[in-house]
Amino acid sequence: MSEREPEGRSGGGTDGDGSRKARPDYLRTKSIEQSIKDTEEPEHALTRSLSALDLTVFGVGVIIGTGIFVLTGAVAKEQAGPATALAFVVAGIVCALAALCYAEFASTVPVAGSAYTFSYASLGELPAWTIGWDLVLEFALGTAVVAVGWAGYIRSLLANGGWELPAALSGPDAAHGFSFDVLAAALVLALTVILVLGMKLSARVTSVVVGVKVTVVLLVIIAGSFFIDPANYRPFVPEPKGTISGSGLTAPLIQLMFGYEPTTFGVEGIFTAAAVVFFAFIGFDVVATAAEETRNPQRDMPRGILGSLLICTVLYVAVSIVVTGMQKYTRLTVDAPLADAFKATGHPFYAGVISFGAAVGLTTVCMILLLGQSRVFFAMSRDGLLPRVFSRVHPRFGTPYRSTILLGTLIAVVAGFTSISQLAALVNIGTLFAFAVVALGVLILRGTRPDLPRAFRTPWVPVLPIVSVAASLWLMLNLPAETWLRFAVWMAIGFIVYFLYGRRHSRVTEVGTRTEQGPRGAV
């Protein structure tokens, strides 16, 4: 048996007489060894500069956005009452299932690309392309939507100071007719420059901003705890009050398929609320895209992923307890529940603090989503599935500057012309799809490559990955049918691009190792 047998196993199997069976080229896998070897190419190698603390800060920075100030109260009013805290715990557990799978992959395959790279090693090239294409959309739309939300907060703060931007420069959410959101575009371009200048600089900027953001959250929690009225917690789990339903494409897919209608309030309402607040946790998976730039990924990736998730879960639960204790859940507002709760107790000063914290917080969310997208794009380009010109790293800064500049410019334009409500739901389904694929990949790689050294092992395999897949699919089924339709259209476009370009330019051979030179002299 040759020394390269483990690599060969990733590309195909053998038939009864011991000869290798040919797999379709679109199902070829890329060996773990080759994925790691590719990170050593001088022109395509990223600089390792991140620690476990940096990764944890990235995770907290991207997870905590405006949701902690808005979603907590909105869900309490409409779906779970004071039991919203339990809904966050349930959602945190679902995320932890996926996080444990991500931690194993990120420590075993410390390569840029996150779920895309993991899928290439376990499921095959077409599934990897599918998830990579999905992540490009998810991170791009997420960055654009967050940038638009940030611009809205800044305009509000400017208005409080007596400054107003012209309507033509305020974006479609703030004006009718032609309008370009110059603040949203400027934020994306500024963050693009920071990302090009190096990961350590990005980590320092993120650390400062996340420090301010967490300080604001803790201030709100501590200040709000002095205004809690225990009577507002009764009943902690309100009586059930009917169902959430829609019609046509606005209805949840599970309702159209099986007639099931989620219930509000009561015990079942906690799980309905969990499906909503789950999306407040979106972002911890972005940490995995920085595996290749981590000094000790085998040790630090699990710490960064799981540590950031734990910190954010505690903060979400604390804020939900405070907001439902300050004001009866039936009297909470939907748009700004925490700020209005402080106003209702006679302390409007904290409403301004919350707006400041939200604006600061969205800065890091936007930057880390942009970071994640550029790394997935970089990994796909390095494999030849996208033009390899975008996988060159800067000779001085060690960052994938070409892909970062391209994507940053495109997203700045999208953010300038996009309404915040148009495309946000696609981010949710894309994330859940990635969660399911990663959990499935852990199961497959345990069977096909049991010999791999694993610094972190997902516990309770195969039960935990199976439960993670089931939980992700359940939440996906609770999304509106129109979101599924838009997602299907994007995936169809991705299949066309793959079969017209990616399949023919792939640098991976049928046995899981790359070719020495891409087709047609690609560089």
TrEMBL record:
Subcellular localization, per the record?
Membrane
- Annotated transmembrane regions: 55-76, 83-105, 135-154, 174-198, 205-228, 270-292, 304-329, 349-372, 401-420, 426-447, 459-477, 483-501
Q: Per its UniProt record, what InterPro entries does this chain match?
A: AA/rel_permease1
Keywords from UniProt, A to Z, are: Membrane, Transmembrane, Transmembrane helix, Transport
The main location is membrane
Region Disordered, as annotated, extends over: 1-40
Q: Does the keyword Transport apply?
A: yes
Which spans does this entry mark as compositional bias, Basic and acidic residues?
Answer: 17-40
Q: Which GO terms describe its molecular function?
A: amino acid transmembrane transporter activity
Q: Gene3D superfamilies, from UniProt?
A: Amino acid/polyamine transporter I
Q: Name one GO cellular component term.
A: membrane
How is the protein disposed in the membrane?
Answer: Multi-pass membrane protein
Q: What is this protein called?
A: Amino acid/polyamine/organocation transporter, APC superfamily
The organism encoding this protein is Streptomyces melanosporofaciens
